[in-house]
Amino acid sequence: MEDIGRIVQDIHDKIHADADWGIPAQYISELAGVASDQFAISVVTADGRCWSAGRSRQPFSIQSISKVFALIATLGRIGEQLWTRVGREPTRTAFDSIMLLESDGGRPPNPFVNAGAIVTTDALLSGREPSQALAEILGLIREMAETDEIYINDRVAESERRTGERNKAIAHYLASHGNLSNEPDLTLGTYFHQCAIEMTTEQLAMSGRALAGLDGVPRTISALHAKRANALMLTCGHYDASGEFAFQVGLPGKSGVGGGILLIAPRTASIAIWSPGLNGYGNSHAGTRAAAMLAKATGWSVF
Ligand code: DON
After folding, report:
1. Residues 6+ apart with CB under 8 A from 77
2. Does ligand 1 have an atom closer than 6 angstroms to the CB of 160?
3. Atom 7 of ligand 1, nearest CA residue
């Protein structure tokens, strides 16, 4: 396992030597100005050790990675009923596309595209206040990461509320099909705050241990929900680049426009990578390459 320490350092050095960073998310003003030449990787192995390189203690905006935790919280609350409102198929459309909603009668294709995540958060919110739904998501993440030092960045949430016209359109379109139970603004506010949770790669890798089913990890989520989340991460976690990600990396992963990636090597390791520059699919440009390097160097793959 000492090898993992060397492998993550080699990946970090290669990523910096390449200096091929991509561009941070421009549509969320608080993220647009983040310096792109940053990189971090953390790997928690089955023996409980955490191997890191780069800025692994720098909190970043987890954005769509929060959708994994929101999904698990919602499944915990309403169970399989969620699937009457959201599908579980990958798409060839972008994460913020509205296109399939029209042909599919307002039922989003999966819980990781924005439309599906908005419906999932809406289901979690039903019957209570946004602060309670957010406390449930944050509480689950803190429990899974075994630390309370994880917070929501209100400035990021507010900046997305100001500029998130695409998500507002999606929420109202869902409402027109009767697929939102709450006022669109209430659900969106909750969703924007969930996306604005900040974590370090060390914390994110720790939080993925339950998804990886590592031995000796506190039982924070059910085995069934971990299985569901991993299946969706593999098939839908990188949106219209999920096939390419499975081809290059071969592990369930979930990206966010903050530049983070949560990667699961079942029963072997939980991995978090961060580099804020994005590729054309809205996934981390250097982070995606680092994930492929890690998979190649370790031989980890579900196939
Ligand atoms: O709703 C949005 O557009 C963002 N809060 C999250 C999108 C995202 O992270 C897509 N991931 N790569």
Report:
1. 123, 124, 136
2. yes
3. 64
